[in-house]
Write a structure and sequence with these properties.
By secondary structure, this protein is an alpha/beta fold. The protein is built from seven helices and six strands. The protein has a six-stranded mixed beta sheet, sandwiched between helices. Strand 4, helix 4 (141-152) and strand 5 form a beta-alpha-beta unit. Helix 1 (27-41) packs antiparallel against helix 2. The longest helix has 21 residues, at 98-118. The relative contact order is 0.19.
Length: 246
């Protein structure tokens, strides 16, 4: 199963999409750990990066630590894709412009991470956080499977793409805390005024737990904890002396 979400598509330099890959039979164990955290801190309602404030930051911190513990145990894989929104011509993305740019980022994440990483050995059931940016993804199953068949030699890799509400899906909440923290770190918000001390602490914590030397560049071959800083195709061509972004 693959749960995915986005962060920082507006008001920041870098937008991020991220996903967690988890075997279906590992989910009860993970949900049990999350229930223990909620019980310990008496947390009610949805846990999201957006509501990581001083009084509730301990739950978010525990979720971030749990995610990295699960990665270390091999129960969960985490993938994140950053992209500079000002490097894209949103008019060329589609009629919804920026929304279509984000939707395409989700497609690229799904194709190059779960499909390429696991397609040869596992059936994929994908659950994005629901919203305008993901509502067209169910229509992309055929495209994902077509490219996946050519890349992995396996047929019908993606069995389902079904957006879910993060309010009712705990796995999306687990993802959201670390995604939001790393997106904040990538955008340097942990060094700026205007962000709470709680979120500064959580952003720094999440980055430190990755054990990455920095948050730039890519680590392509690492399935368990994967970072991808995307560059638009036209920008690559321009850097090579070809087409400009226009």
């Amino acid at each position: 199963m693959y749960f995915c979400d986005e962060s920082s598509q507006s008001g920041d330099t870098y937008m991020a999409v991220a996903g967690i890959a988890v075997a279906r039979d590992a989910i009860p164990y993970i949900l049990g750990k999350m229930t223990e955290i909620r019980t310990t801190y008496g947390k009610q309602g949805e846990v999201k990066w957006k509501n990581a404030k001083s009084r509730s930051g301990l739950v978010h911190e525990a979720y971030i630590k749990l995610l990295f513990e699960l990665v270390a145990e091999g129960r969960l894989h985490f993938h994140i894709r950053f992209s500079r929104m000002d490097e894209y011509d949103h008019r060329k993305s589609g009629p919804r412009r920026k929304i279509d740019t984000v939707s395409k980022a989700f497609f690229q994440l799904l194709l190059h991470r779960p499909v390429i990483f696991y397609g040869a050995e596992a059936d994929l059931y994908v659950h994005p956080d629901d919203g305008d940016c993901t509502k067209q993804l169910p229509d992309q199953i055929s495209a994902l499977n077509y490219i996946g068949r050519r890349s992995c030699g396996a047929h019908n890799i993606v069995k389902l793409v079904q957006p879910r509400s993060s309010e009712r899906e705990p796995m999306l909440q687990l993802l959201d805390c670390t995604l939001g923290a790393l997106a904040a770190y990538r955008n340097g918000r942990h060094e700026k005024d205007g962000i709470s001390d709680t979120k500064k602490r959580l952003a720094t914590l999440a980055f430190e737990l990755t054990e990455w030397p920095d948050i730039h560049g890519n680590c392509w071959q690492k399935k368990k904890l994967n970072r991808w800083n995307a560059v638009p195709k036209l920008k690559k061509e321009s850097a090579a002396g070809g087409t400009s972004l226009g």
